[in-house]
Description:
The chain has 471 residues and is of the alpha+beta class. The chain contains 9 helices and 4 strands, in the order ααααββαααββαα. It folds into 2 domains: 15-105 and 150-317 and 358-465, Outer membrane efflux proteins (OEP); 107-147 and 319-353, Outer membrane efflux proteins (OEP) (Single Sheet), CATH 2.20.200.10. Helix 3 (68-80) packs across helix 5. The model has no long low-confidence stretch (mean pLDDT 86).
Amino acid sequence: xxxxxxxxxxxxxxxxxxxxxxxxxxxxxxxxxxxxxxxxxxxxxxxxxxxxxxxxxxxxxxxxxxxxxxxxxxxxxxxxxxxxxxxxxxxxxxxxxxxxxxxxxxxxxxxxxxxxxxxxxxxxxxxxxxxxxxxxxxxxxxxxxxxxxxxxxxxxxxxxxxxxxxxxxxxxxxxxxxxxxxxxxxxxxxxxxxxxxxxxxxxxxxxxxxxxxxxxxxxxxxxxxxxxxxxxxxxxxxxxxxxxxxxxxxxxxxxxxxxxxxxxxxxxxxxxxxxxxxxxxxxxxxxxxxxxxxxxxxxxxxxxxxxxxxxxxxxxxxxxxxxxxxxxxxxxxxxxxxxxxxxxxxxxxxxxxxxxxxxxxxxxxxxxxxxxxxxxxxxxxxxxxxxxxxxxxxxxxxxxxxxxxxxxxxxxxxxxxxxxxxxxxxxxxxxxxxxxxxxxxxxxxxxxxxxxxxxxxxxxxxxxxxxxxxx
Length: 471
């Protein structure tokens, strides 16, 4: 018994120290420039001087989103979203699969007890007389435990672990995406509500103008053409009010779907002007921060899993050693089952040496191709991440210039509308000039609201594509 105990101890030490045939992992070089794009479109996107703003990945989303209502909406989304729930369940499943594969390194120990009663015929008995025999057996054993001398099971365990890590990073990517979608949907609702206010105020102004011109028409001071022109503007303004009422309802539906529940009115924005803009942060000087993005990390873990799988495929060419053994006690009567001299044991190692199996070579080729595929996906993930950040930085570098130009345009059209009204009232010009100026002013005001929303939305997008929001 002591010899058997020492044998298992030495065997366990040898197995735990078994080698691995997986190739040494080396992270591929990032196929993108080391710095962000530079140029006119990126002016103003450089990392600020002291005091330096925090990097996006180091800034908690609770600190980034300055508006308390928006933070509560995002918390509701993260709590109720079925996408988050599904991603978390996928992580639990991957953890379970890893546990199964890791357990392959350990033997499965089974306890068994048996009772056998047998009648032996007289012509088969050594005594020449018929007899009945009984046997009681209790044993503890290991069945077909593969000794991982060449790291096949260990490589499969490493692959399962990396796939678990990749699934967890996919969960974080889902979280970042949902937060960005929720924030952008909330800002879109704010912008459409501001557009609705603008459309209603425009309608009120048009109706007031219609009443004025109607009185002038009744007095013979305005033509029927002027009356019909203002009527067309009133009808157009009514259509715009209805359109933005529809957009407001659609925006609320989209936001409630993301939240997984009906959001209370106090958490919804009244307009865009009352929204607290997100906190500023630094994009950094190096594109290396992209390696911290969850989707890039997930692609790298998949690459590591493919790398470990090569080790399992290589080990398939080498012998496999499995062990079946048991120890226990046996006796012809129940009372003598645990008496001295009733002990039994068995020890049956099996060595399986692959001689020819063409599938093994094909499987090895598949694992090498899988690694090349994962390298390409990893590099593609980095390139896509770089493109996302570059696009967001390009918007950030130009949106303020566009807003300044649009604000100047609104002021110009406001003055044009005022002067056109004066000229009409004094009979110098027709009402057509007033209508043209009013249409231009309304369009410019809508464009300005869209740019205000685009600036905040771009800040949200840039925060997400830089890996911000992970928790």
